[in-house]
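Folding Problem: From Residues to Backbone Shape
Fields: amino acid sequence; protein backbone structure tokens
RECORD BEGINS BELOW THIS LINE
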Amino acid sequence: MKGMGAMAATLFTADDYITTGDSRPRATELINGEVVMNNPTVRHQSVVSFIHFELMLWTRGGAGRGKSPGQLDIKFDNGNVLAPDVLWVSEGRLPTDAVFLEFAPDLVVEVRSPSTWRYDTTVKFRTYEAAGVAEVWLVDTASKSVLVHRRSHDASPDFDVALELGEGEFLVSQMLEGFSLDITALFNQ
């Protein structure tokens, strides 16, 4: 596993990884066939909790606002089972008994963690884009900014809109009508 010292690299398929279930360490993902450990910091977890809390408040504020279930494994392809820090799925798409997902959520949020940021901004980002995720937020706690990547319309094959938001600004999304994330409050966690 990457992040666990000098262990021999073993490649896994997504199905092999998923079937290991409770026998594997909790904070891992399968990235290009390799098990990668996530070692989040207190700051990382505080920012993740803030975003998830704000999304939960918004989803419970009205009917038809989908679900933000917390961290779930998502099987994207045979070599990638990813667990975004925060995710949101539009109304009616999330089975209530799902242990893992086999479809792309509508929104994915990744928060900078020393052990996985390089994957979040490269391999994972490209996987989300190829799978059809509508919007990705990359939250950089070091620069106190949020990079928002979205598709201008449903048929867009790539993220063709990119925004960088910093303190004093608010993140809004066309998918989340009435939702607003205060970037200053986010980084004051």
Remarks:
- The radius of gyration is 16 Å.
- The chain is about 25% helix and 25% strand.
